[in-house]
Write a structure and sequence with these properties.
15% strand; alpha/beta; single chain; 275 residues; 7-stranded parallel sheet; Rossmann fold
C-alpha cells in the first residue's frame, strides 16, 4: 500500500519538511488556495517526488474530513505536516482563533482517527506561544482537551477577553502545543506520534508580511538582539521536522520544540525583556 504524507499549508516550511520525509511516498499538498498547492506540487514534482495537490479549509470540519478521505483513497496516511495558519498582521482576532486554534484541533482530531501505526505528525506553532504569560491549570486543560467544535465557546476566548490579534495568536500557538500534548496520548493508542515545532522568525512570505507590517520594527529588533542574530531559513525548521517525524525521533511525542535563535531566552532574560 502507498504511504501518504499530507502537507497542510503549501508554504516554505511545509515543503522543507516534505522534502526530507517524502521520498518514496506520495505527498498530498493541500492549501486553502489550489493555485498555491499546485505551484508547490510542481516544484516537488520536478524534484522527483510523487505528488498531488488539493484544497482544504482547516477551519471547516467537512473540508478537513474531505482531505482525510482524499488521502486515504490514495493509500495509508503515515505522516501529516500541519503548517497552515494566519499571522497577527493578516487577520482579526476571531479569524486567528478560528483558523490557528480551532483549525489545528480539527486537523488533529480528524487525522488522529486514520493515522497509521508507526505514523507521525508535526504541527507548526510559533515562538509567540512561549511569550504568553502563564495560564491557569484549568485554562491549560481547556485548551488541550475541549472538543474542537466547542473550543471557540470557551469564556477565555471571547471578544471581551481577547482584544487584539497578537494576543489571539499567542493563545492559539500556546493552545497548539497543549493540544499536541493531549493528542499524543490518543495517537499513541494507534502506535503513532505527534509533535509541535515553535519556530521563531523564518524568512517566508508570511514573515515578510510581518516584517513589512505594523509590527515590523519589533520583528527586526528580535532578529538583531537575539543570541543568534539572524532569522532562520525554512530548511532549518525542516531539519527539526525530519527528526521528529523520522526513526531518530521515535521516542519523541507530545513535545514542543522551540527553534527561535534564542529570541524567547532574550525576551525573558536578556535584551528583549519588556520594560
Amino acid at each position: 500500500m502507498t504511504d501518504v504524507i499530507v502537507v497542510i499549508g503549501a508554504g516554505s516550511i511545509g515543503q522543507a519538511i516534505a522534502r526530507r520525509v517524502g521520498a518514496g511516498k506520495h505527498v498530498l499538498l493541500a492549501d486553502l488556495r489550489l493555485e498555491n498547492a499546485a505551484a508547490a506540487a510542481d516544484v516537488l514534482g520536478n524534484a522527483g517526488f510523487d505528488v498531488s495537490a488539493g484544497t482544504v479549509d482547516i477551519a471547516s470540519r467537512p473540508s478537513v474530513r474531505a482531505l482525510v478521505e482524499a488521502a486515504t483513497a490514495i493509500g495509508e496516511v503515515t505522516g501529516v505536516i500541519h503548517a497552515a495558519g494566519v499571522s497577527p498582521s493578516q487577520a482579526a482576532p476571531a479569524t486567528i482563533l478560528k483558523v490557528d486554534l480551532h483549525g489545528t484541533a480539527l486537523v488533529l482530531e480528524e487525522f488522529g482517527s486514520v493515522i497509521a501505526s508507526g505514523g507521525s505528525a508535526v504541527v507548526i506553532a510559533s515562538q509567540s506561544g512561549h511569550r504568553l504569560g502563564a495560564l491557569t491549570a484549568e485554562q491549560n486543560a481547556a485548551l488541550a482537551l475541549t472538543p474542537a467544535d466547542d473550543l471557540l465557546s470557551l469564556p477565555m476566548l471571547q471578544p471581551d477577553q481577547v482584544k487584539d490579534s497578537l494576543h489571539a495568536y499567542q493563545l492559539s500557538k500556546r493552545g497548539n502545543a497543549l493540544r499536541v500534548m493531549a493528542e499524543a496520548v490518543r495517537w499513541g493508542r494507534r502506535g503513532a506520534r505527534v509533535n509541535c515545532i515553535s519556530p521563531g522568525i523564518v524568512i517566508t512570505p508570511l514573515a515578510q508580511d510581518e516584517l513589512s507590517g505594523p509590527r515590523g520594527e519589533g520583528y527586526r529588533r528580535m532578529i538583531d538582539l537575539c543570541p543568534v542574530g539572524r532569522a532562520a531559513t525554512p530548511d532549518e525548521v525542516g531539519n527539526v521536522g525530519a527528526l521528529l517525524m523520522g526513526p531518530d525521533g521515535a521516542f519523541i511525542t507530545g513535545s514542543d520544540v522551540l527553534i527561535d535563535g534564542g529570541v524567547t531566552a532574550s525576551y525573558w532574560y536578556g535584551e528583549l525583556a519588556p520594560t
